[in-house]
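Repro case for the chain-ordering regression, as requested:
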Amino acid sequence: MSQLLGVAMLIYLGVAIILVMAELWSSPLMQRAGRGLLWAGLALHSGALIGRWYASYRMAAGPAPPPVFLEKLRLVILQAPLSNYYDSLVFFSWCLPAMGLLAFRRHLQGWLGAIVAMLACLLLAKASFGGVNANIQPLMPALKSNWLLIHVVVCFLGYAALTVAFGAALLYLIQDYSPREALPALPMLDRLIYRAAILGFFLLTFGILTGAVWAETAWGKYWSWDPKEDASLVTWLIYAALLHARRLKGWQGRRIAWLAVLGFLAIIFTYFGVNYLQSMHAYMT
Amino acid sequence: MSTTKSQAQPKSRLWGWLTSIRLTVHLLLILAAVAILGAVLPQEQPAEVYLSRFGDTWGAVIWRSGLANIYFSIWFLAPVCLLALNILACLIHGLPRAWRRSFTPLSGEAALTLPQRARLQWPRGTDPREAVAGIWRRELGRTRRQAWPGNEVFYHETGRFRPLGPYLVHLALLFILAGGLIGKFWGIEGSLPLTRGGTAQSFLVGGAEVPLGFQVRLDRFQVQFYEEGGIPKEFRSDLTFTKNIKNPQGGRELRATCRVNEPVSFGGFTFYQASYGTQPEDQVRLQVIQGSRRESLQVPLHQWLTLPGGEAQIMVIKVEGNLQGYGPAVQLAYKSGPEHPLIFWVLKDHQDMQEQIGPYRFALESANFQFYSVFQVNRDPGVPWVYLGFLLLLPGFYLAFFRPHQCWALVLEESPQGDWQGRLLGSSPRAREDFDLRQTRLLEELKKGTPS
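-- result from build under test --
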């Protein structure tokens, strides 16, 4: 299974290179090849995820899996491979091409496709070589909740959409400060930032809500000012500001792009930075 | 929200400022900055923590200025209150209009005033009305039409309720903020440690006892581990609640199991399995050695016990599960005659370290520990408001972001000679991209039937 992930990582790297070359040589054939390969990488990655899910389920079920279908289903839901740092890196990485290919199909090529594939590759590299404990660990009591699956999935899909917005914003800023033929046109990037930010903001909001409901059932507090909660609030506020500024104040272009970059930094802090602070959300390994 | 320009009068200038989107964006960014501080600075620690970490000057600044408890200080509450006012002002300002717009469906007459997008012409003698009706139905769904002598209009509207979306979202945020405030002022949260078989009629809120109004008993408490000393698997407390304290047999009773993620509610309070701890059982088993005589004794905690022979008394002061890495130990007080009692430790696993005390030596045979369960006990009347806000957010987001408002109309006019001409009208203030796509498709379809 880790071999599968290794192959997926190499594929993402290859996709990034191919898409950049396709852009430099303006070759539609290579664009198509790059995207086809990205689909292949995503398929392998999905296979690895399902394999880990199955292994985690088998470990929890032990020699005698629950006989009743509903109990079995509950165990399957609980054992989704989303409970430690390694799992989250692998899943975050999976979300990037998945979100890109499903929600931003038309835009996921060239430089933007390369950025998304490269980030997915880096996340997998961090999971594999970053000294992260890859063992499947049994769930501690607080994590035993149906909310785990939905909370984590929605949050990371949101992160992925906002990462696409960041990629578009990066291209926008490069294009804006030193215009190049090869880069996508500014108005298209501007619209893409906005669309990705809307989707990401919606998912992030939903992620925070599910987290709050879960916290209320687990700890009796829907909000406890935990550093991760603070950081996600910061992220939420930045994107809320972006959407208001763009929609109602008519901000466009550079300022919106900078806000999207700022929001992405907040996400990075929410995801990585909080592990270095005292937090209920800090991954244990 | 709106972008009303402020007028000359001071009142309307204040109103204009309160309803301005500039204020909203600034407040959001200020709140983000404050929350970053809150995430980075440790919160709600004693003053010494800040003094030792940030030095005397900065530590004192942080402590005095409220940055150590930032979410309940003016730094956070002032912008939040202003934001709530801003949202409220925008609701009052814009909701009536959005409401009217949402409940005024597009009429045939109104459709005629939409901006024109394209012109179409049909060859003489063809009546395009049926073909157009078919295309309209296929592309846009439900068709509405209105006819006057010589002309006819087909029209269609989607996302009529879109204008309500943002107001729903902001109303939801106000509910959530209100719920937070209600919880802050009328809610209560505390903790309750219970040993097995123990009962309580009150719980601890910041060191003070607050009555529950009923009795709770811990019938059983189980802690399971995946493997010895490893990750805990489950905490499970079996509780019995009794409504009538004076007459436990007569009152209403509830038996329930409380686990992590499975709280139990009774009598207006909710009990959450928060943590657990260990404490020694009520007695330990000691061996008293006097020369060659050994006697095993059951010794209760915190009570003087006369030793065999009656020359001295001992009392167990403290029981430790692991004393400085030496394993289980008890602290004993030994009294013989009028002198001060002698206080010393007896280790279970290191009997060789035990000295002679008077005529005696002591050995610890067993000191057992039992788990006790700690509950978080809450009453938060704000939660329903917060959840109501959550529920409103979802349809609000859906309307605001995923139901763009579009109006379409096709006006067909027949000239006295029998020529049919068409004008495609339409508007979509917010979603240009979707609008353009649909316009291209509509025109393609319409032109298929018109060779000219």
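Ordering looks correct now. Chain A touches chain B through 44 residues (CB under 8 Å).
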